[in-house]
Amino acid sequence: MTLSSCMAYSLLSTGIDDLEDHQEYAAYLSPSSTTFEHNSADGASVDYLSSPSDAKGWRAGFFWHMRNSHEQLLVSQNTATCTGDKAGDGEAIGYDNNHNTFAFDSARTVAAASPNSVTVPGALQTVQEGKDISSVLSSYYIGHWVQIAQGRGLGQTRKVVSYSTDSGTGNVTFTVSPAWDVTPDSSSRIIVGREYWQVYTVDNFIDHRTPLCQKSNANAPRGGVIGLWAHTADSAVEGNRQYDTDGITMQQLYRADAPVVMLHTGVEIRGNVVDHEYDWNSPCSLAGFKGNIGASPTPASLPPVISHGLSVARNTFTEVDGLRSGALEMSLGWWGGPSPGGWRLVNNALIHHNEINDIIGPPPAGSCQNISHQGQVRAGINVFNAVAWRSVLYGNTCNNVTNPLIDNGTQTVRVCPDGATANSCECVGQPADLSVTSTVDKNSVAPDGEVTYTVTVSNTGTTSATDVSLSMDFTPGVEITAYQANGGCYVQVGTCNLGSIGPGQNATVTLTGRGVTVGNSLGTFSVTTKSGDDNLANNGSKVSVEVFP
Question: Which of 8, 381, 421, 477 has the highest CB neighbour number within 10 Å of its CB?
Fold first, then answer.
């Protein structure tokens, strides 16, 4: 473990009473694990700087680099106060990407795989951090980690136990442990690098409320932050309490020049309290939770998914907003270079049962990191752009929040059951989306012959549609003689009352008709609801039947 900090440490009580999270994760650890507990970092200490004008270093609390992989690390019950008080960024707890060593200069497409191995083309990197490693190349990458960043097996992370290079093809085969749950194939791309694996950041106490905190450093955009800024898998940030800080961030940081961007898989952000932020009026605030996944200046080297299976659950955010003005936000990173465009950078994030309080008014004027805040509105949840795919939102509560949700993501799922409360972040004002389709069992029928119409009304929206009514009309040629439906139909007046249709549900009406007049008979169907439907383009359907002599 490599710790980089300028602060003094002493064994002090954290003042945290609930240690259930700590005990839970301690039970996961093996005897060879590392623990970092009961330490204190005080930025207001007289020993903090050698002189008031000394501006060297980050002025962070507890900081880890990637000089080696960090596996089964428990960082728990530590206290950080006034971090970044006089100079520097001031992170409280940070895991960064500095000194990471990647086996390849980009993500590699799988050439072959078995339950315990994976083979990819391309020469291994022979220079790391300016040093030639050719003499130890045969073993240097043992202990590194293989992550599947695209395709079959997406999100799996396995440790390298051995590897070899084929002298004929130049392909490299990595033997991994444990075995793959899902064996990758030619659709898969992998990254090989150092890893934070099973790193548990739990029950820490970070407080900038004390009057001793000067908060005189105007350039402390990460004051008191907990940051996951490198390859991370199967890890958790849980039960931490942060007051007047810049919250929890998950992004690429300090290695913008990395040949491949980090991949977060299976990370949980759970049960944390982020209460007020370091500087509510700063456009550079990073407070709340910010899944701001940073893009590389060379996006051709990026894997199309760089965060997979993220869970943000049961956290409390009060008077905090992030760089994109959301208390809880998912967005593309900020630094230069072309955008990866339509890539799925953040995939399958599960955001549920968070409580968000007091997010009101416009964000501060100005800009930060080339992001203009002009005209923006503070929001509870902000799925900022289309590179966030298939985020699932449910059970989140917004109290005194002017704009509960901004959703510019792709295929975002908002789960809104019947009876969703008025202070739901994702359900308030979200209408149903009804559609209707119609088919017949035969396209032509003789006089007195039977034809069956099947009419299906579906709700693809996120809230229930109430008082659903199906209207139908038939031109001469076919007479309706019988029906089957979920509700009551009045064929003579051309309506069926279908009651309520929940999200993802449908109602079917089956009509039996008899050919009576030679010619073409057109059946027209339309659906309405009293609870609102903002997409009327799919509310109608037509089907025709030819009555032949």
Answer: 381
